[in-house]
Design brief:
With 105 residues, the chain is mainly alpha-helical. It has a domain of 45 residues. Helix content is 51%, strand content 0%. It contains three helices and no strands. The chain is flat, with a radius of gyration of 31 Å. The protein starts with a helix and ends in a 15-residue tail after the last helix. This is c-Myc-binding protein. One of its GO terms (molecular function) is transcription coactivator activity. Keywords: Nucleus. It is found in: Nucleus.
Length: 105
């Protein structure tokens, strides 16, 4: 197969072994497992506690972000920002300052 690929890249005709001839096959390297590595045999309770605190922190941050996103959506800020950005995108002559653009509408 490799000779066919090399032949395709170089433009040469591949030389295939005759039928029935002995073709040496290279030994394949051992396959690596796709399973995640197992945790260490001994893990202290402190490690698990630290991981739990970290996960709780991420969940709290995600919850706050979600609340803020809902607040922006309810108040119409997301729709207004989207309309301004679409208008700027569709503007044939872009302004020098994109930050000042919304104030000139």
């Amino acid at each position: 197969m490799l000779s066919v690929l090399v032949a395709m890249k170089t433009g040469h005709t591949p030389v295939m072994p005759a039928r029935g001839s002995q073709v040496r096959k290279r030994a394949r390297p051992p396959r690596m497992s796709s399973a995640p590595p197992s945790p260490p045999a001994t893990v202290s309770g402190a490690s698990y506690a630290a991981a739990a605190v970290t996960m709780a922190h991420y969940k709290a941050a995600d919850s706050k972000r979600e609340q803020f996103r809902r607040y922006l959506e309810k108040s119409g800020v997301l729709d207004t920002l989207t309309k301004v950005l679409v208008a700027l995108y569709e503007e044939p002559e872009k302004p020098n300052s994109a930050l000042e653009y919304p104030f000139h509408l």
